[in-house]
Amino acid sequence: MGKDVILMERIDASILGGVIAEVEGRVFDGSVRSRLDALRQELLSANLSLGGEA
């Protein structure tokens, strides 16, 4: 494709790990924080029985 890459590196401890990249205005979020947030939302929206009944 012949395009130059401009890398702007920034360390953000709040993402806990992984990487967030922006390419041509699109954001690719591969952070641990976003995966944990998605899991949290999924668990909160699930109809879970935390009592003794199975």
Give an overview of the whole structure.
- With 54 residues, this protein is an alpha+beta fold.
- It is 26% helix and 15% strand.
- It has a two-stranded antiparallel sheet.
- The chain is elongated.
- It starts with 19 loop residues before the first strand and ends in a 9-residue tail after the last helix.
Task: Considering the chains and any ligands shown, give keywords for the structure.
2 strands, 54 residues, two-stranded antiparallel sheet, alpha+beta
Assign a percent range to the helix content: 25-40%
Mean pLDDT: 87
The strand line-up of the biggest sheet is 1-2
Number of helices: 1
Query: How large is the radius of gyration?
Result: 18 Å
- How much of the polypeptide forms β-strand, as a percent range? 5-15%
Task: Describe the protein's topology.
Blueprint: E1 20-23, E2 26-29, H1 32-45
Antiparallel strand pairs: 1-2
In summary, what is this structure?
The protein has 54 residues and is α+β, with helices and mostly antiparallel strands. The chain has one helix spanning 32-45, and strands at residues 20-23, 26-29.
